[in-house]
Design goal:
Number of strands: 14
Number of helices: 10
Structural class: alpha+beta
Shape: globular
Low-confidence stretches: none
Largest sheet: 6 strands, antiparallel
Order of helices and strands: EHEHEHEHHHEEEHEEEEHEEHHE
Helix content: 25-40%
Strand order of the largest sheet: 13-12-9-10-11-14
């Protein structure tokens, strides 16, 4: 069912944006799909109907560059993919493209808390939910070793280290004072990536997958149904007053589920989830059109998924010599 004529996706060089494009194609929710990024070194022209270049989120020209592209292609919905873009829009209280259609964003409270890992831990504590101890590196030594050293802002595991050496910890107090010490949650093989969707009427839908990860990204997963995890995720969604979709990373410890990150954006597993029936992107599109989200019937426990790869070739313009 077509919901929009033209949708603009940012971050078109990345797997999340390309996955959202695939969902729009699969569902027929948009007649045209436009991509954009801060550069043109990507296979976007093979995947999108058109691609453009926009300014980075921290550039004063960011909004104007999106507006120019949106007006040129008569876009009626813009989906920001990068957390920096989402954070900029929420901080500036921008909900619509200047002179154009709306941005598809999670609710502001979920964004402001989720983008700040210290605020995330404190939110969980304030809600009476299990949480990892989390402190600023520049203010204190780790409460316990080994622990995790991680950036306060950002995602994907970049800059995250497991620290066991007290001397090394002391050196990081000087070199990374704005980062965080965080409790090492165990066991290592009990990490879960969880889709959480809360509708405008307050209905919470969740899907949890025990994940296998590599370089900070999910490589494979197995769907689980665990009442402890589902109740924990529901409490997070309600505490955040969430409207829209987020992704929660947690570990199932001997004391129960403990979240260590809340990512206020669509997940890299969004296509897997959609194909399994957890259609959070499509539900978001439906609600953006003023419709009720289609029913969620759950996903079978034990369903497994794997991340694959594709190759894209863009022919050189004009005559070319063959490589011998």
């Amino acid at each position: 069912m077509q919901l929009f004529d033209t949708v603009l996706l940012t971050g078109c060089s990345e797997n999340i944006s390309q996955g959202l494009c695939r969902i729009l194609r699969m569902t027929g929710a948009a007649r045209h799909v436009i991509g954009c990024d801060t550069h043109d070194h990507h296979p976007g022209p093979l995947l999108f109907d058109a691609c453009g270049v926009i300014a980075p989120a921290d550039d004063p020209a960011f909004l104007d560059s999106i507006a120019d592209l949106a007006l040129r292609h008569r876009v009626d919905l813009v989906v920001p993919v990068f957390e920096a873009e989402i954070g900029r829009l929420v901080r500036d209280a921008v909900t619509e493209v200047p002179g154009g259609g709306p941005f598809l964003l999670p609710s502001a409270k979920a964004v402001s808390i989720g983008l700040d890992k210290l605020a995330t831990a404190r939110f969980l504590q304030d809600q009476g939910l299990a949480h990892p101890w989390t402190d600023l590196v520049g203010e204190t030594d780790p409460r316990q070793l080994p622990c995790i050293l991680k950036p306060r802002f950002g995602n994907g595991g970049r800059g995250m280290l497991r620290i066991s050496d007290p001397d090394l910890a002391r050196s990081y107090r000087r070199t990374r004072p704005e980062d965080l010490w965080q409790e090492l949650l165990l066991p290592d093989d009990q990490e879960y990536t969880c889709g959480v969707y809360r509708s405008r009427r307050g209905e919470v839908r969740v899907m949890a997958s025990r994940r296998v990860w590599w370089s900070g990204k999910t490589y494979a997963g197995t769907v689980v149904r665990d009442p402890l995890i589902e109740n924990y995720l529901t409490a997070i969604a309600e505490g955040l007053e969430l409207v829209g979709s987020i992704n929660v990373q947690l570990r199932l410890t001997p004391g129960g589920p403990v979240a260590f990150e809340i990512n206020p954006r669509f997940s890299g597993t969004v296509v897997f989830r959609h194909r399994l029936g957890f259609e959070d992107f499509h539900w978001s599109l439906q609600e953006a059109r003023g419709l009720s989200p289609a029913p969620f019937r759950g996903v079978a426990t034990g369903t497994r998924f794997f991340l694959g790869a594709e190759e894209y070739l863009i022919p050189a313009p004009g005559p070319t010599a063959l490589i011998p």
